[in-house]
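pipeline/complex-builder :: batch 7 item 3
reading input block
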Amino acid sequence: MAEFLIETIGLPTWFAWTAVAGLSAFLILNVIAGGALVFIWAERKIAARIQDRLGPTRTGGRFGWLQSLADGIKLLAKEDLMPDGADALLFRLAPYVSFCASFCAFIALPFAFDTVGQRLNVGVFFVVAVLGLEVFGVILAGYASASKWSLFGAMREAAQVVSYEVPLGMCVVVPVMLAGSMDLVTIGEKQAGWAVNWFIFHDPFTFVIFWVYCTCAIASVNRAPFDLAEAESELVAGFHTEYSGLRWSFFFMAEYGSMFLVSALAAILFLGGWNGPVPVSELLGFSDGVAATAPFALRFIGCMNLFLKATAGVLLMMWIRWTLPRLRIDQVMTTCLKYCTPIAAAMFLGVMLWQLFLPGGLVPGSFRAAAGVREGWLEQSYRKESAEDESLSLKKLSRHISEVSR
Amino acid sequence: MVQTLDEDQRIIEFDVRTDEMLVNMGPQHPSTHGVLRLVLRTDGEIVSELEPHIGYLHRCAEKIGENLTARQWIPYTDRMDYLAAMNMNLGWSLAVEKLLRYQVSEKARHLRVLIVELNRIASHLVGMGAYGLDLGTFSPFLYAFREREKILDLYEEVCGARLTYSYITVGGMTADLPPGWLQRCEAFLDQFEPIIQEYHTLLTTNAIFVKRTATIGVLSPEMAIDYGCTGPVLRGSGVDIDLRRDGESIYTAMYDGYAFEVAVMKNGHYPRDHKYPAVPKDAVLGDCWHRFFVRMLEVVQSMDLVRQSIDRYSQCKGALGEPLKLAEKLPAGDTYLETECPKGQMGFYLVTDGTPIPWRVRARSSSFSNLAVSPELCRGCLIADVPAVVGSLDVVMGEIDR
């Protein structure tokens, strides 16, 4: 797109890049924030259905579509309170740290094979690391609030999230090992084809480690039964006890953003990402050639696939939240250190040995055939892009587009 | 040797400087069941000391009772254990009737059993649901309230009120049942019976629930008796006392001819436990899980009693009988009567001087004694266990503060 602006419209290079970056940021921010609003509404409706009640029914029509928006307006109108003893700077800073960490991670998250804010060759690492920053916001909030309950919440959050990063990292490493790349786009592409190509079905160890990942992901985004940092029956509201209005809503948005992020990550790492269970586009021959020239519909379907899978993950989290009681802090730590970490380590070893001795699966070459269709199509296109003649062909292409649009 | 150890400790303390923290849990806290204030002395997550502070809901009900006639005070008993107001009404009515040596009609007796046991179900449903809330699960609470609503609907038909009924009164009831009520009540029981399994799935046998409640807050039978704990708290510790069977004759006469087994663990198993989930192997007699389970069993027991009383009530011929006059003269003397309420043994004491207005009125609250044991149970537990323990005692502040 930047090339299009520079070469066809003739904008200065710096301006074109800035404009494109701004547009990408705007899109990601709004899609995710809008998504968070939808998820908040969905959570209310789902919780209501689970609990045998109706949930919002009036705001914005029959199903209460606009409830989240109405809540947002209410939060905007609320008085902005800060406790007397609070550390003003940190208290104000904390929600933004959480919010930024949660939303920044989306930069490297691909929604389809080339629909990604910024393709990073260390994408997995980036996402997990940036997501880990969210805990800083919570700790800051707990520390700066000058409330004992907030402090308890922050201490719990620090202990919990830092512990759960270990098994989470181990779980994330497994697909990285299978794909031979830390690039999320590559990892997703390696799972193209039938559903059996998804890494969750790669071998028994990956199947187990997927569930370990689910547990750790729920724990690292502080959802029930691991929502100790905001345990309302123990710590009033935990780290956000003293927050109100828009600042509080930033924590809320960050939480829902993170939920979506870890679900999308699970989808990309284990559930085939943007590839559907049946490779319709491959069978119909749409994905011959290279990714750059693939029809727009393919990207759209890819996005929908990923959204569907990630949403399913979020719904699973909601279901769990409204069913299970909360664990105690020592039980949370036990779950992490005594169960998740050893299981993840053992599974990691198992996958490694499997790769070593049975690289083609139990019956060699049985279910890898479909993946061959798109093997390398993305790499090919990227390689071409880097070549000199590619820019020329792109120029031709863009000129062609502008002519058509005229 | 001892000397050097002391010095070492001081050095360590000087270096690290950890402090204990005093935390106020309540009176405005989501899990303190009203306006209870718990002062916790914590070392990190560990509670070294807990002190309950009460009195935030004190309304001088006992003093007011010394200025009203016995029947006029009935609405004030409603506000004591407001989750089981019928039981409060009954306790006071029976105490006054004991003083008057008055016996209600057979029909009124069965109706009282029906109403009171139905209220026990409602109270235990709240206790169960709120306990789920204390442990961080929201849905069972609403499931419990869904069923409780139906009981409240039934009560609304009977007396027009949903929370503070003033239905049972000195000498009988304020009104008879409306037509068709018994059928609706039976329909509710039929519908409710299979649902109990849901609660067992969501709470009683839930792995996390068992982890959170088993071996937490173990109350030994001796300590329970020493502190005067009563009701499910006492029975959860394996002490076989239920005033409906062991109480004074005027109270046990009400349950004459009713078949029920006290929900207490005897010889290592609960009555009828073949129908209900087995006791998890982690659970120790007297812990939070057992207190919770006793309540669940009592719900079933009360349903059984309600069914029996419906049969007996509908077979009774004759009139229900009118309650006593609003300003019935009370003979000079004093009397004390304890009844088995859902939360425990609620006692009413009154001294009279021959006028319709008692000279002295006192109430003995079960929640008060049950709460008094919480510092013992919470010593050395984690902060998350405090709601689990206090919730398992199922206290109602209206009854403690009166």
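note: Residues 13-50 of chain A form the longest helix (38 residues).
queue -> next item
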